[in-house]
Amino acid sequence: TLSGTYTVGTAGNFTTLGAAVNAYNNSCLGGAVIFSLIDASYTGEVFPININANPDASATNTLTIKAAVPTSISGSSITGMIQLNGADFVTINGSAGNTANTVCPASAATRDLTITNTSATVTSAVVWLGTTGAGDAVTNASVQNCILIGNAATTTIVGLGAGGATIGTGGISNNNISFINNDIRACQFGIYSSGASATNKNQNLTINLNTINAAAPNNVGLCGIYSAFVNNITVSGNTVSGMANASSSDVVGINLGMGALSGIATTTTGIADGISNATITNNTVGSVIQSGTFAAAGIA
């Protein structure tokens, strides 16, 4: 049975994050679990690190992965570096401090955890929250205060996303998800989230205070924030800029339901990619450039 705080590092309770997550996947939970990252870097990991559904997970029996010091996780994965496979009540918190994130007044925690996926495959992500093939959804999950870096603006498909078992597809019942105060670089889509269909939408998505504005060549190429088939979505306090493309794809800063973007399986049906009950406030949109024959939009 797991309960309490466990250090992860060379001198910790677990030497690698993969070992800690394996214990979580195969243990009973007696309370909230915290995996505290105590090393400056983690180089011996095997990717992807898969966080699976634990039947004991609940609002009381949560899992938090938290940086205790500035640290980095780097490697190559043709899927994701860290993947939640139908896991519930999981938080990845990259801040070594305890500052609360708020949009108004603006307040942001430190970002002390950097996760980098060096794989040049177009099937890959940095962090992905996915419904399993058996239909287990990710619920009540949060990724916050991290720096997430892909391979390039034309390769890594998603920096941070939620959807189906396959990266870049829609998922079923991924509800109560939040992506807050992350810095995302070097991928095609910065943040991606999609439900399954207009009649089977995900519920309650928060995308706040994220920074997606790195300069080339570490920019996000096609879309800063993308979402489809979601009900009750808040996109607030984000900064998006640097999207640029000359080939066959629209380029959008914040795209809620417009669809028609290449590279993602669920974005080809246009306005049918319905978003409902959306709040879009306090965002800063910089350069969004399509220098070929397709379209560009700041907020669509």
Strand arrangement across the biggest beta sheet: 1-2-5-8-11-14-17-20-24
Average pLDDT figure: 93
Report how far apart the termini are: 48 Å
Order of helices and strands: EHEEEEEEEEEEEEEEEEEEEEEEEEEE
How many helices? The count is: 1
Secondary structure tally: strands = 27
Can you tell me the overall shape? globular
Biggest sheet features: 9 strands, parallel
Please estimate the helix content: under 10%
Which key features would you list for this structure?
1 helix, mainly beta, 9-stranded parallel β-sheet, 8-stranded parallel β-sheet, globular, 27 strands, 300 residues
Question: How would you sum up this structure, described in words?
Answer:
This protein has one helix at residues 17-25; strands at residues 2-8, 29-37, 41-42, 49-52, 63-67, 71-75, 82-85, 90-93, 113-117, 125-130, 141-144, 146-149, 158-163, 177-180, 183-185, 187-194, 202-208, 211-212, 220-228, 230-236, 239-240, 243-245, 251-256, 275-281, 284-285, 288-290, 296-299. With 300 residues, the chain is mainly beta. The strands form five sheets. A nine-stranded parallel β-sheet has the order 1-2-5-8-11-14-17-20-24, covered by helices on one side. An eight-stranded parallel β-sheet has the order 4-7-10-13-16-19-23-27. The chain has a five-stranded parallel β-sheet with strand order 3-6-9-12-15, with no helix packed on it. The protein starts with a strand and ends with a strand.
